[in-house]
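Most newcomers find our protein records easier to grasp once they have seen one. To make this concrete, we reproduce a full record directly below:

…
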Amino acid sequence: MSNSQAITCKAVVCWGLGEPLKVEEIQVEPPKSTEVRVKMLYASVCHTDILCSEGFPAPLYPRVLGHEGVGVVESAGDEVKEVKEGDIVIPTYIGECKECENCTSEMANLCLKYPIALNGLMLDGTSRMSVRGQKLYHIFSCSTWSEYMVIDASYVVKVDPSIDPSDASFLSCGFTTGYGAAWREAKVEKGSSVAVLGLGTVGLGAVDGARMQGAAKIIGIDKNPWKKEKGKAFGMTDFINPDDEPNKSISELVKGITHGMGVDYCFECTGVPSLLSEALETTKVGKGKVIVIGVGVDAMVPLNVIALACGGRTLKGTTFGGIKTKSDLPTLLDKCKNKEFKLHQLLTHHVKLEEIDKAIQLLKQPDCVKVLITI
């Protein structure tokens, strides 16, 4: 049954574009009939959180940031059946009703009944968070940089309590998105060749996914030389640092180690506009496929249409790596439980919720992959 009392707790609030993040005391309302209130244990920092603080996809302020994390169900609405008080859960930003056209298709994971919430509100168009009487926007379906949050139960997945909760936090977005892009979206074939642009958490997930799919050649591309060893830990076979040969394009460097052919698949994980065309040209003529994962603040980006159309290549976007939250995430959680993922390799820094400014600064450090927030 739902706890009918509001809870006062600490949360990270973004008050506006360019304004510093502040840890505030906020009020979190009890869950409605289909919702759960979650006591957060850990959260993690994703580049998307930074983008949202900068007004992506819309300038909604004030808002509580954070969409990766893991927590314990503190209370549940009367209609919630899948989880109960005391269950450990991770949030997702898309649901899976298993009934709509997309959920019943093998080609899509974007549920039409439980879509991405870009308005910063719950499914009924209201918020469950406020600060000094002022409405707070959520980020997508949730707000994990808070001691408590409310989320519709359709957007949570139950976690086996034997799984390290910090590992579970990493599976709620970044790593899963990259892994799924190779596994579910591209369906990388055994013996194929792959290039991954950007070796952050998402890129390393794509490397690992390509490895598990049986790719023979996995090329990691990053300007940070420190990422070479990280990439190798997840299955990368070759590393390219574009700064080492500034007179050559990335596509030329990739073709230089693929006998001039390029790769079968390329995963663009950086969101840098100029790299979209480069990603296309790294792939093979007539059959190359590019999966676009990274996004930036620019909604419109330049594109080499000749490389796309005349080159016979495929360009496809992905959200959450094509992962269906209810059908596929349990498989990844089982792999995590069985130690098939090297998620400890992602964790480079710990901070407390009150140290969110430190977390943001750590992201700029060359040795940072993932920052874990202890709540």
Summary: The first strand starts at residue 7 and ends at 14. The longest helix spans residues 201-213.
